[in-house]
């Protein structure tokens, strides 16, 4: 995979391909994957690696903030109004009566919303979590010890739901690759997918430099918000 394929415009894709994911959405996806893996590994290793666990948590929070905003102002396929549907749409998709469109399918939308909710919850509770020894979230000292302890427990309990959801996500990708011959992971890397997988009226997603510039501004603001949160830490001897 070359850098040029990652950064290419929809118009540069083969006529047999359609641009389904913009670059900011793809970067968000893979950075979030890195944060999930990094957070899990560092918390299991423990010790001084807990400092990196906090950094992965801060990055996750920034990514979630970005995706929420991007879900309202990004290209149409990544907007919540485009892919979040009710139970009827999910059932129609499972029955095979709903044709594929760019963006997330109705079942994938459930996974996306669940992932944002679980990881957002995990990142926020982590701000208040503490092990009372080596590591603590920047807001842990701003609440009483009982509440900090409760939030720490809730933070730990969220680990298994996240792991289960990630496992289901990976199994779904494998299923689509084997059963439906759809390379979902490849599309999230290149941004393109075979045009014949979509209905004839499907429009390619916008992936211009204007879109990418807007995403950069949102990302910088999200990073600024997270950085501001970290400055709220009260010195407690850690």
Structure notes:
The protein is mainly alpha-helical. It has one domain (38-230): Fumarate Reductase Cytochrome B subunit (Up-down Bundle), CATH 1.20.950. It has helices at residues 3-7, 23-45, 50-73, 80-83, 87-94, 106-126, 145-157, 159-179, 184-190, 209-230, and strands spanning 17-19, 192-194. It has a two-stranded antiparallel ribbon. The longest helix has 24 residues, at 50-73. The protein is elongated, with a radius of gyration of 20 Å. The protein starts with a helix and ends in an 8-residue tail after the last helix.
Strand segment tally:
2
How many strands, what sense, and barrel or not for the largest sheet?
2 strands, antiparallel
Question: What do the pLDDT scores average to?
Answer: 89
Q: What name does the CATH topology carry?
A: Fumarate Reductase Cytochrome B subunit
Q: Unreliable stretches, pLDDT < 50, 5 or more residues?
A: 9-13
* Rg over alpha carbons: 20 Å
The SS-based structural class is mainly alpha
Strand content: under 5%
Q: Give me the CATH architecture, please.
A: Up-down Bundle
Helix-residue proportion: 55-70%
Number of domains: 1
Distance N to C terminus: 44 Å
- In spatial order, strands of the major sheet run 1-2
CATH class: Mainly Alpha
GO molecular function: electron transfer activity; heme binding
Protein name: Cytochrome b
Pfam families: Ni_hydr_CYTB (PF01292)
Keywords: Cell membrane, Membrane, Transmembrane, Transmembrane helix
């Amino acid at each position: 995979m070359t850098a040029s394929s990652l950064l290419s415009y929809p118009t540069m894709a083969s006529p047999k391909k359609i641009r389904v994911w913009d670059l900011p959405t793809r970067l968000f996806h893979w950075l979030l994957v890195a944060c999930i893996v990094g957070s899990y590994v560092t918390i299991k290793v423990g010790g001084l690696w807990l400092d990196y666990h906090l950094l992965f948590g801060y990055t996750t929070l920034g990514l979630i903030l970005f995706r929420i905003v991007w879900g309202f102002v990004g290209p149409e396929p990544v907007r919540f109004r485009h892919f979040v549907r009710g139970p009827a749409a999910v059932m129609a998709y499972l029955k095979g009566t709903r044709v594929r469109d760019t963006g997330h399918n109705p079942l994938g939308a459930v996974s996306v919303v669940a992932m944002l909710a679980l990881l957002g919850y995990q990142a926020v509770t982590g701000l208040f979590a503490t092990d009372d020894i080596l590591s603590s979230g920047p807001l842990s000292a701003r609440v009483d010890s009982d509440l900090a302890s409760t939030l720490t427990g809730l933070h730990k309990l969220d680990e298994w739901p996240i792991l289960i959801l990630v496992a289901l996500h990976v199994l779904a990708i494998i299923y689509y690759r084997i059963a439906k011959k759809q390379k979902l992971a490849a599309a999230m890397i290149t941004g393109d997918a075979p045009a014949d997988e979509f209905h004839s009226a499907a429009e390619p997603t916008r992936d211009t430099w204007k879109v990418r510039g807007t995403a950069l501004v949102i990302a910088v603001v999200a990073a600024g918000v997270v950085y501001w949160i970290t400055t709220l830490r009260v010195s407690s001897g850690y």
